[in-house]
Amino acid sequence: MDTRELAAHGPVIPVIVVDRVDDAVPLARALVAGGVKVLEVTLRTPAALAAIAAMVREVPGAIVGAGTVRTAEDARAARDAGAAFAVSPGYTAALGAACRGIGLPLLPGVATASEVMAAQDEGLSFLKFFPAVAAGGVPMLKSLAGPFPDVLFCPTGGITRESAPQFLALPNVSVCGGSWLTPADAIRAGDWDRVRRLAAEAAALPRPAA
To answer: 142 an active-site residue?
Structure first.
C-alpha cells in the first residue's frame, strides 16, 4: 500500500490512544460506523499493540495503523500486530530502512524544510507535518508549498474540528490527523455514540483538493 492511498478514505485520520484493550473494538466500530475507516493507534500505552490486533481481527472495513513508531523494534511489533501502516513523529534513515525491509508503509513526521529534504532523499513524498500548530500551522505549510510542490502533507498535532477546514483547504494537504474524534472521557465512559457522531462530522468535512 502507498500511504497516499490513506487520504482516499476521508479527510481526517483519528489519532487514537487506547488505555484498555476492551475499548479497542467498540471504539473502532464506532469510528467506522461514522464513516472514518483509517485509524491510527498510537504506541503510547501498554495496550496499544493488543488494541491494534483486536481492531484488525474484529472490525471489517477498518484500516488500522500504528502511530508513534520510533524504532525498528516498534515497526516490527506493529507489523506483527497486523498494522497496515506506520506513522512516526519524526524520521530517521534507520527507521525508513526498517519499514521498507518488512514491507510496512511509513508516514514519517517532519517539521522543517531540512527534514522534508531528508525524507525526500529516501523516496518519501507524503509526510506528516508534526506538531502542526506548534511548528507553524497553516502559514508554515503555505511556505513549504513553494519549494516543495511535489510533497503532500498530513498535518497533525493541535488541530481541532474548528481549525481542520483551514488545513484541508491547502493544496499541499491531502488529509489531516486529529485526536478530537476520540475524546478520552468518551472512551472511559464507553460513549460510542458520541464517538460515532464526531466521526460522522469529521467525515463530512470538505475534502482536500489534492
So the answer is: no
Q: Which three cell numbers stand for residue 187?
A: 472512551
Q: Are 69 and 43 in contact (CB under 8 A)?
A: yes
Other beta carbons less than 10 A from residue 118's beta carbon: 18
Q: At what angle do helices 48-58 and 21-33 cross, to 10 degrees?
A: 50
> Which residues touch 123 (CB under 8 Å, ≥6 apart)?
none
Name 64's bridge partners.
Answer: 39
54-66 burial, b at 16+ Cβ within 10 Å, e below that, comes to bbbeebeebbbbb
In sequence order, what are the beta bridge partners of 16? 41
Selecting among 128, 142, 162, 201, the annotated active-site residue is 128
Annotated active-site residue 128? The verdict is yes
Q: Which residue is catalytic, options 37, 40, 162, 201?
A: 40
| Tens digit of each residue's pLDDT, the chain (210 residues) | 889 999 999 999 999 999 999 999 999 999 999 999 999 999 999 999 999 999 999 999 999 999 999 999 999 999 999 999 999 999 999 999 999 999 999 999 999 999 999 999 999 999 999 999 999 999 999 999 999 999 999 999 999 999 999 999 999 999 999 999 999 999 999 999 999 999 999 999 987 654
